[in-house]
Amino acid sequence: MALTLSEKLKQLRQKKGWSLDDLAREAGASKSYLWELENRPERKPSAEKLTEIARVLGVTTEYLIDEKATFDDAQVKEAFFRKFNRLEDGDKTRVMDMIEAWGKKK
Questions:
Q1: Where are the beta strands (DSSP E) in 40-101?
Q2: How many Å apart are CA 74 and CA 92, to the nearest integer?
């Protein structure tokens, strides 16, 4: 089923249990701006805002703007790696150490 940007934003926000206020605070946007994105499909966010909204919702911008895109395993991995790449080097090392430790469990 194809979902619009408006529908995806609302669905993802609600899945996290967030109000519009919560998403606004996390994404650095106003509540009224986000309300318009969710309720007025003709309203399109700037690339900068879309990137930040996607980041806090844990998805990719491509997923949000492509009405035919589904949130599948590839999207989950891409969102994870984007978050991972923003970590400081020391934090990346700790994550890699944890992954190695989990991989040794059998």
A1: none
A2: 21
| C-alpha 70 chain-centroid distance | 13
For domain 5-104, the CATH architecture is Orthogonal Bundle (1.10)
Contacts for 25-32 with beta carbons within 8 Å, 24 or more apart? 26/56, 27/52, 27/53, 27/55, 27/56, 28/52, 29/53
pLDDT for 103 equals: 81
Q: Enumerate the domain spans of the chain.
A: 5-104
Rounded CA separation 42/97 (Å) = 46
Digit-coded pLDDT (tens) for 27-74: 999 999 999 999 998 888 989 999 999 999 988 888 888 877 666 666
